[in-house]
Specification:
heterodimer; A: about 110 residues; mainly beta; B: about 120 residues; 4-stranded antiparallel beta sheet
């Protein structure tokens, strides 16, 4: 079973600043990693797949990097609408399944 | 506009059953794998199951194998989740999601419904 961890658990950032979120896998994923954003009371929204490919309609301030076991989501200049929880998700061992990380909460500083 | 609308959630006693439905619109439903993903209150996301375009393959997370069944009706643009032998730990918001396939690999979930709450409690 692949275990996903994310750090930090929470992050306080001022609008306009850069946010860097980390995701680590217990075994190598290659580039088989996705990122999501979830706001309170809403469904998750796909941001990134293939570790670095932005999904349709996702602004360029969101970028993903990394491979193997270490991945990063960077939000270059935080906007008010970016304060949310961010999850990573691996798809390297499907079938049988997909695994999400525990999430990073990004709050307003 | 792509839309997924779940229904069928509610309160059920432990050991009971519930059937969730997800109605899709705005895209060619029969061309997409579909998944159910759940989120227990105040916690993270857990993929539950998915089903191939023609319904002939299904995959499940270990914790629901033998209890949950995913199915689809392409004529009705709908996917279902039959949940039997429900436990307190199945309490969650259940989301219907469309699988994103890139070069033959399911990578992620690119469209989500608003979710339906399932509460398992006596």
């Amino acid at each position: 079973e692949i275990v996903m961890t994310q750090s930090p658990a929470s992050l306080s950032v001022s609008p306009g600043e850069r946010a860097t979120l980390s995701c680590r896998a217990s075994q190598s994923l290659g580039s088989n990693l996705a990122w999501y954003q979830q706001k309170p009371g809403q469904a998750p929204r796909l941001l990134i797949y293939g570790a670095s490919t932005r999904a349709t309609g996702i602004p360029a301030r969101f970028s993903g990097s990394g491979s193997g076991t270490e991945f990063t989501l960077t939000i270059s200049s935080l906007q008010s609408e970016d304060f949310a929880v961010y999850y990573c998700q691996q798809y390297n061992n499907w079938p049988p399944g997909f695994t999400f990380g525990p999430g990073t909460q990004v709050d307003i500083k | 506009e792509v839309q997924l609308v779940e229904s069928g959630g509610g309160l059920v006693q432990p050991g009971g059953s519930l059937r969730l439905s997800c109605a899709a619109s705005g895209f060619s439903f029969s061309s997409y794998w579909m998944s159910w993903v759940r989120q227990a209150p105040g916690t993270g996301l857990e993929w539950v199951a998915n089903i191939k375009v023609d319904g002939r393959e299904q995959y499940y997370v270990d914790s629901v194998k033998g209890r949950f069944t995913i199915s689809r009706d392409n004529a009705k643009n709908s996917v279902y989740l039959q949940m039997n032998s429900l436990r307190a730990e199945d309490t969650a918001v259940y989301y219907c999601a469309r699988d994103l396939v890139v070069r033959g690999v399911i990578t992620s979930f690119d469209c989500w419904g608003q979710g339906t709450l399932v509460t398992v409690s006596a």
